[in-house]
Amino acid sequence: MSEIYDIGYRHYDGPRLGRGHTTRALTVHSLRGVFGLGRPARSKLVPFSLAAIMVLPAIVSIAIMALMRREGMSYSGFAVIMQAVLAIFLASQAPTVVAPDLRFRVLPLYLSRPVTITEYVGAKVVAMTVALYALIAVPLTLMFAGELLVDLPGPPRTKEYLGAMLTGLLLAVLLAAFGLAIASLTPRRGLGVASVIALYLLASASVPIMYSTLLSAGDEDAARWAWLINPFWLVDAVQVWVFGTTPNSEGGYPDGPVSFVIVVLLIAAAVAALALRYRKAASR
Amino acid sequence: MHILDTEGLTKRFPTVTALDGLTVTTGPGVTGLVGANGAGKSTLIKILLGLLPPTAGGARVLGLDVTTRGADIRRLVGYMPEHECLPPDVSATELVVHLARMSGLPRTAARERAADVLRHVGLAEERYRPIGGYSTGMKQRVKLAQALVHDPKLILLDEPTNGLDPRGRDEMLTLIRRIGAEFGISVLVTSHLLGELERVCDHVIVIDAGRLLRSSAIGEFTQATRSVTVEVDEGTQALADRLAELGHGVAPHGRMLLVEVTGPDTLDAIRDATADLGLCLIRLERGRQRIEDVFKETAGV
Ligand SMILES: Nc1ncnc2c1ncn2[C@@H]1O[C@H](COP(=O)(O)OP(=O)(O)OP(=O)(O)O)[C@@H](O)[C@H]1O
Ligand SMILES: [Mg+2]
């Protein structure tokens, strides 16, 4: 036999934590959402499959190093080679971070609490960045650990590994800010997925066309600029500029910090777009 | 202490003035904020939360100025929006725990508080299921629970009875009464209907087109709402004459009559009069008149 006790209302007199705590909690909550943690199994399927695909080359690379005793995949080229997987991850998961709160008008429940728009948007961008960075950094680190264990002749490629880790972070920030800005424009998840993918395809497909057109016109300098249309080659150009790695593009990139300036401007534009979008959503 | 006070509070949108020089104060307990569509109720609540800057004038909540202390106000206040605001694919428990943490509660405290408030609002086993499958009544309870979870000093409820059937409405109103009386949390609750708030409020503020019509303790209102709507098939005039003859306060209201209830004998008199005149009684309803109608009747008094 069960009895129902009504013990009456109890007041809460425990601690009330500050902004740092709420922002961190929101970031972790959003990050769990990206990987479908705490959601039904089907929400985990896509993010974890893509994460597994990202790790595959690392495993193959370790096997090559161990069995064939020669250098595995290059660290600096990893993100460019795996760009399609990263783009699909961004397209499929960015909308899950921003769309539901906009579509179901959950935002007022946050803003009526001590959470500001800036903290909310910041938490979302950080969560998406961490997720993307995990996809890049975990395989890179696995490969590097493998290289150290296998103990190839010659010194380990430590500088290239660290350079790739730093460049990967820049790439993650750029992709996260941009993906979220685009996904936040539409409260519909499916449309968000399609928009991000369409934009990526456009940016990738147009590069070879522009490159070869400009090249056949004999303008080699202009042709190099074409690579910067695609975010993955754009960030690779930064890597080449900062760490002096081999370009992962045909014919290299324009010299100097121009690619870095473009990345910074793009991140600023995406964050501004997000801020505007949310300011508008908040005033509804 | 005043729970809230406003001073010449004005909010202009590009095309409308939503609040127009509103000066009003209210103390602890349950306060009703009554007004027709577009009267400015939701606008007032957003200003009180510090989310919308006033165009002119000022307001304070729990003694804190809305323009400078918004963040502090939002720490102490709970808010239940008028519109749907729940994501369908998470459970009530998950959502309320998360929002408790967004109010600054540590993880374990958030879990305990969420379980407590969900029980208080009457959500049992279903709280573990995704909200998408809930009835309107259950959704309203989740909205109320998230407003209470951080144990606020004051909650602002924007049309909590919206979309509920009569029974759901009664349960919601009972809950609001308990929150004010037993939980010791002050409540500002909005509605179109003075009649439904009459039961649960200590104080009522009536606004119309952003202006204050009246603000007073509930006792002074009962006169206005203690009336019934009577509708008969034909012979409305004859019935009105008869009731007036018998000394009852009668006012025509479209095709219906508003009859002031002075005691149980008023209802008997209406019944007898309709029977005597051989009229067909279609409706006899109390306490649910639209506030602006009631007010136009009594405003001149
Ligand atoms: N963001 C806004 N921009 C422009 N006008 C607005 C905005 N918000 C409210 N209004 C206008 O201000 C007036 C008051 O609106 P408000 O939502 O406060 O009324 P309300 O009393 O809550 O009405 P309801 O009962 O329909 O919820 C309305 O005329 C509305 O159209
Ligand atoms: Mg409203």
From TrEMBL, chain A:
Keywords on record: Membrane, Transmembrane, Transmembrane helix
Segments passing through the bilayer: 45-68, 75-94, 130-150, 162-185, 191-213, 256-276
Name of protein: ABC transporter permease
Organism field: Nonomuraea rhodomycinica
UniProtKB/TrEMBL annotation, chain B:
UniProt-recorded Gene Ontology molecular function terms: ATP binding; ATP hydrolysis activity
Pfam family name, one: ABC_tran
Coiled-coil segments: none
Domain ABC transporter per the UniProt entry, residue ranges: 4-234
Alphabetized UniProt keyword annotations: ATP-binding, Nucleotide-binding, Transport
Family affiliation: Belongs to the ABC transporter superfamily.
Name recorded for this polypeptide: ABC transporter ATP-binding protein
Organism encoding this protein: Nonomuraea rhodomycinica
